[in-house]
Design goal:
With 106 residues, this protein is mainly alpha-helical. It has 4 helices and no strands.
């Protein structure tokens, strides 16, 4: 269950990272409220996952999910570049996430 909570926390991290762009520096009310809400949910789920998972592993995976998801969303939604070097770096992050999951208990 902790891994599911961690995956959900990572998904909400992607949501708030994307939401930051929509807030226009927190000058737009609705996007700002949604972004802040996503931040709270993400951190709350991370905190629940940390009841069972090792801190370093959970935090690295949480930020990795957020990073990879945000990069992919930036490419798909915002038309950011998707060159081979950039995608290779994302693949390295994914490799690290998978590796940490494989060597971690619970």
């Amino acid at each position: 269950m902790a891994w599911v909570l961690l995956l959900l926390a990572g998904a909400f991290e992607i949501g708030w990272a994307l939401g930051l762009k929509q807030t226009a520096g927190f000058t737009r009310l609705v996007p700002s409220l949604l972004t802040a809400g996503s931040m709270v949910v993400s951190l709350g789920l991370l905190g629940l996952a940390l009841r069972t998972l090792p801190l370093g592993t959970a935090y690295a995976i949480w930020t990795g999910i957020g990073t990879v998801g945000t990069v992919i969303a930036g490419i798909v939604i915002h038309g950011e570049p998707a060159n081979a070097l950039r995608l290779g770096c994302v693949a390295l992050i994914v490799t690290g996430i998978v590796g940490l999951k494989l060597v971690s208990s619970p």
